[in-house]
Write a structure and sequence with these properties.
By secondary structure, the protein is mainly α. 61% of the residues lie in helices and 4% in strands. It has a 5-stranded mixed sheet, sandwiched between helices.
């Protein structure tokens, strides 16, 4: 029988770890006063009026309704696929998760097909949706039965939530409401404006795929970005952002619905809460980024793989491979997880001779390869390397610095000064790794929070508890995930979301004794509640300080003023001028960071790290006549120049430095070869190319 002193000692050690964490993790602790103060300053451009407030929320409601229609169609399509493969799943929540995953993945493939055929337009998308709706309706009538959504009954008294657990639920609900409000904000995050939304928007402006050598990220697999393109075509950026938020919610749901079988309801819910309240995960809910979608596909693939391992169902293995293919089509970050599952598959097959057969090998490899293949083919067509930028030192690729000139990825990262995160230089670093993981680089991309550290003392209460066999396999996968991640060149926690999800399952099992109804162990649960509340408060603080959402959400701040307040040296006014005055078919050269989401014209972005079109123009031109012919040869008629960007990014410091003569020629051409049409107060100006002939 466990000593009554053990919970008190464990709780005291938890508090000590928590205090040490917040003392040494600079910039992580957010005091209540500082948190409340972050709500104080609200950028406004006018007094409150019902008209703008109601108009804004009617627009957001319309975007949400469009998204709901897309989600229902995805669910119907996914259910049709499950019926077609005769998948038997009694739990309604798992059936819902699988159907939505397959439906959203199918939408991504439909978006790819439309973009590849040049029909990624509103009309083309509506025609595809009409075909899908007709097929789903016919399939529903043919099957003669509608799938019910009867969810599991209320848990027995032994598993019902107690006060401590209800406190966790309240923290999660408050954080979700805050992130939902954030999803209704206009895009201002760097990733959204440079890649996640701007590239899909450029596809919709062009009606399909376009070769974008100025943005090396455009060559990566983009299943989630095709969903964002569908959102932009139907309901705008809010609809696109809701796809990401929903995928995050589905990832949390997958942790609970699948983890419930081998952890129990309470531990599975704690695992989902640990995942959601990890700052690097939660901070993505309000943004249109691909990592949450990839994590949902990846976690679902892992759970289906565990089902095959426990039950030997080859159909579960093939469905797992299908979700692996969807995850690989989102980002290369899914590769370590796929390799980890492959290693566990090989180990299991060798131990169980009956599993070592061609059918199982094909089931785990073929669906993933087929679903990943379209992006590999496109990448090969664009760059000459199907897995660009991976293996760029082996396969010569058309990428980086002027596109046609080969430059290995290793030189590219060295030239930009991208360092490894958490490099291990000795035994001391290895021993200090837990602290470095949870207290270093605490920002949007890295912040894991304190909750996983608090599991270390709580693990003492797990002695004598038999770990479920499936959870032991999760532990092995976690080890492989962490090993791959620590061995990668860029250890960014945002690329590790699925690994955090699997780690959360282990955390849920360890945390469960602190939340047992009969224990009433406030000494154990209180540090955990403090850590989770602090992490949720930190997520809200980051959004408030850097985005200042409330002026816009209350209708007192215009879109222009909101974007200008959230961005430094914003080119929004210049883009608005171009959108209003340039012909719809005009192509713009942007000499700036390519935060081009609000530009509604086709464009080329001149950046120092991929394809610097302006440097190329200066390099091959001796006078304005040659510069005009070179720019018009690329189809460019207008130029947007951000003087602040040029000033803050010295030409000589670029990976491909300018000579002194080129620098002087560039300044002369900017002054004499372009006819200025508009200058904003932020140092951004719009010019038309002078005709010299």
């Amino acid at each position: 029988m466990r000593s009554s002193r053990v919970p008190a000692l464990v709780g005291a050690s938890e508090l000590l770890l928590l205090l040490l964490y917040y003392k040494f993790a600079q910039g992580v602790w957010v005091s209540p006063g500082r948190w409340l103060a972050s709500f104080y300053w609200i950028p406004v451009s006018g007094d409150f009026a019902w008209g703008p407030f109601v108009g804004l929320w009617l627009m957001n409601a319309a975007a949400a309704l469009v998204f709901a229609a897309c989600l229902m169609l995805a669910w119907a399509l996914g259910m049709g696929i499950l019926r077609a493969i005769r998948w038997r799943e009694e739990a309604a929540d798992r059936r819902l998760l699988l159907a939505l995953g397959l439906g959203l993945g199918s939408f991504s493939l439909i978006g790819f097909a439309l973009a590849a055929t040049g029909t990624l337009t509103r009309g083309g998308l509506l025609a595809a949706c009409a075909v899908i709706f007709s097929a789903c309706l016919w399939d529903e009538r043919r099957s003669g039965s509608s799938a019910s959504l009867r969810f599991p009954s209320w848990p027995p008294a032994s598993e019902r939530p107690n006060a401590e657990f209800l406190a966790v639920a309240a923290v999660c609900a408050a954080a979700l409401a805050f992130h939902l409000a954030g999803a209704f904000l206009p895009p201002v995050a760097f990733d959204e404006m440079t890649y996640q939304l701007s590239v899909p928007k450029l596809y919709t402006l062009s009606g399909g795929f376009v070769y974008l050598p100025f943005n090396h990220l455009s060559f990566l697999p983009r299943n989630m970005n095709m969903l964002f393109a569908i959102g932009l075509l139907t309901g705008g950026p809010v609809t696109a952002k809701l796809f990401s938020l929903t995928c995050g919610a589905l990832a949390c749901g997958a942790l609970y619905a699948f983890g419930r079988d081998f952890l129990g309801r309470r531990a599975a819910l704690l695992a989902a809460a640990a995942f959601f309240l990890t700052p690097v995960v939660g901070n993505q809910f309000r943004l249109a980024v691909v990592d949450l979608g990839m994590a949902f596909y990846e976690l679902t693939a892992v759970f289906l793989f565990l089902r095959w391992r426990e039950e030997g169902d080859a159909k579960a293995l093939a469905l797992s491979s299908t979700f692996w293919g969807l995850a690989l089509g989102c980002k290369y970050s899914a590769l370590p997880g796929f390799v980890a599952c492959g290693a566990v598959f090989a180990w299991t097959a060798l131990r169980r001779r009956e599993s070592l057969n061609l059918r199982n090998a094909a089931a785990i490899a073929v669906p993933a390869a087929l679903l990943w293949m379209p992006w590999l083919v496109k990448n090969w067509w664009d760059t000459g390397n199907p897995v660009n930028p991976i293996l760029s030192t082996v396969i010569r690729s058309r990428n980086f610095l002027f596109a046609g000139e080969y430059k290995p990825l290793v030189d590219y990262t060295r030239g930009l000064g991208i360092a490894n995160y958490f490099p291990l230089s000795g035994l001391n670093d290895a021993l200090a790794l837990p602290w470095r993981l949870f207290s270093t680089h605490n920002d949007f991309n890295h912040d894991l929070g304190a909750i996983f550290l608090l599991c270390l003392p709580l693990a003492a209460l797990s002695r004598g508890r038999r770990m479920p066999r499936a959870l032991a396999c999760v532990a092995a996968l976690c080890f492989l995930y962490w090993a791959f991640w620590l061995g990668s060149s860029i250890r960014m926690s945002r690329y590790f979301v699925a690994g955090i999800g699997l780690t959360s399952l282990l955390a849920g099992w360890v945390l469960e004794p602190a939340f047992e109804p009969r224990a009433r162990a406030w000494a154990l649960a209180l540090p955990v509640l403090v850590a989770w509340t602090q992490q949720a408060g930190r997520m809200a603080y980051i959004q408030n300080v850097y985005k200042q959402p409330w002026g816009y959400l209350t209708g007192r701040c215009s879109l222009r003023d909101y974007v200008n307040s959230a961005l430094v040296d914003s080119p929004y006014d210049a883009y608005d001028y171009v959108n209003t005055n340039a012909p719809p078919a005009a192509k713009i050269l942007v000499v700036d960071e390519f935060r081009t989401f609000y530009l509604d014209r086709a464009f080329l972005a001149s950046t120092p790290w991929d394809h610097d079109y302006w440097h190329e123009t200066v390099r091959v031109s001796r006078d304005c006549g040659e510069a005009e012919r070179h720019l018009r040869g690329m189809g460019v008629g207008y130029v947007v120049v951000n003087d602040n960007y040029i000033r803050n990014a010295p030409l000589a410091a670029r990976p491909d430095p300018w000579s002194a003569e080129e620098t002087a020629r560039s300044r002369r051409m900017l002054r004499t070869c372009l006819e200025r049409l508009y200058t904003s107060g932020e140092g951004v100006w719009v010019a038309k190319i002078k005709e010299t002939s």
